[in-house]
Amino acid sequence: MNGYRVKRQERKCRAQSLFVVGLVLWALPSGGMVSAYQEEVVAGGGSITGVMKFAGTAPTSKSYKVTMGSHPEFCQTIADKKGFINIPKVRVSSKKHLADVVVFLQEVERGKPFPKEAPILAVDRCQFVPRVIGTVAEQNLRLAMRDPILHQIRGWEMLDNGRLPLFHISDLGEGGEATLPLKTRRSSIIKWSCDQHSFMEGWLLLAANPYVTVSDDHGVFRLTDIPAGTHTVGAWHPVLGYQEAKIELISGRQETLELTFVSPSNP
What we know:
By secondary structure, the protein is mostly beta strands. Helix content is 1%, strand content 46%. The protein has a single domain, classed as Cupredoxins -  blue copper proteins (Immunoglobulin-like), CATH 2.60.40.420. The longest helix has 4 residues, at 72-75. It is globular and about 55 Å long.
């Protein structure tokens, strides 16, 4: 499978929705082959593990009154007693640890094999599960429908001044599945939403190599089987933006990393 040589560009973007603070975009070549990531056995590979943290006051959740869309009575099952569905803009644990951060390595040209299984995005009880995915460019995505009601799913390639349509699934039906190729033209960030339910959205970041993961509910992440050397660790959150750190990894060693994202409401 061919990988991308990526060139990171840090940009302040215009808000694509109320949830977007900044996007990290990569220039994806349009035509012609580029140097491919090479799979090889990583002798004495190291690992990077750590925690993503959050500082400040978490942004107020977005609330939606469940009165419209396809079968609102079904989506009411995730609403509060007043009939509102509250979607957090950031998910922070009681210890101020941050979930949903895509963590990846920049500019790794060779290393462990690509994953054999495509990531799965489920539509379950009027929500996308998982909410944020990190995977490899040009891999497929498996979309699984678990709800018995109509969901019309759209995928968008997100730009700093707009978006490009990527896919549209009109109706899978309960138990249905679709395989979606993740081949974009100008951006490494994909957003999906539901035409029927405005409170449904999710995000995906495409990496150029298999060293990519997402921080869990406790903010914890882990990257393994990494070749020794100096690596740039990137960390991206759909609302809080992007930051990075350099790590010198010695063969067979484990290094730890903590990064703190700051609330957009803070100065």
